């Protein structure tokens, strides 16, 4: 087993490698990721380290450029989920009463619905695109963030320093900003990493099902699906992007494990 203290370091190393691949894709990729050729379904070789796909496109180049899409969608969706979920969780956890009751009902309603199924339904309604994917995944994932923040805020509001602030007449908004939020931000940061991992995995699942980033844009989930029919000819078509998804998701989960 990986020691708990080593998990964030390993996760950070994996994430740094993925971010480097995404940022330096134009320099690292040997070919244009959308450039087709007559060398369709070629096995790995010196010219094409991971071979080519059914349209003769270099798989390594598409995996490198696909990191940009997957990381962009993951980080964007996590940001949307955090912006929606944190205020709801802070307000519900600190204010309590009817505010908390209403927030809990809404949160439980969303959490009761499977995230992937809900994302599938909404994506089918509004259409697949990178922007829609970010907004849809953020909308699907905010309840989990809100529930986590609510629990942390509920615990902090019973602290002595919060009671002292109330006693001297401090307003609820000031207490939340100065006392509650600083004591939950480290948990939110860990949850943010986990949310990115879930967003990358879900966006790849949507792409695998044909409702992700439209082709010919390189996307890891779409590449896995495209290579599914050619596993015998060139397994790298599916295995390479699939490994990229698995490693990146594991990296973000390991990074978020510091507060688990």
Task: Give a quick precis of the structure.
This protein is mainly α and 260 residues long. It is 72% helix and 0% strand.
Task: Summarize this structure as a short list of keywords or feature phrases.
MetI-like fold, 260 residues, mainly alpha
Fold and architecture overview:
The protein has one domain (62-259): MetI-like (MetI-like fold, Orthogonal Bundle), CATH 1.10.3720. Helix content is 72%, strand content 0%. The protein has ten helices and no strands. It has helices at residues 6-23, 25-28, 59-95, 97-112, 115-126, 130-156, 160-167, 172-208, 220-227, 236-256. Helix 3 (59-95) runs parallel beside helix 6. The two termini are 16 Å apart. The model has no long low-confidence stretch (mean pLDDT 90).
Major sheet size, sense and barrel closure? none
**Helix and strand succession?**
HHHHHHHHHH
Shape: elongated
Helical proportion?
A: over 70%
Total beta-strand segments? 0
Distance between the termini: 16 Å
Q: What is the C-level CATH assignment? A: Mainly Alpha
Which structural category fits the helices and strands?
Answer: mainly alpha
Average residue-wise pLDDT: 90
Known CATH architecture: Orthogonal Bundle
Rounded radius of gyration (Å): 22 Å
Uncertain stretches: none
Looking at the structure, the CATH topology is: MetI-like fold
Overall domain count: 1
Total number of helices: 10
CATH homologous superfamily annotation: MetI-like
Strand content: under 5%
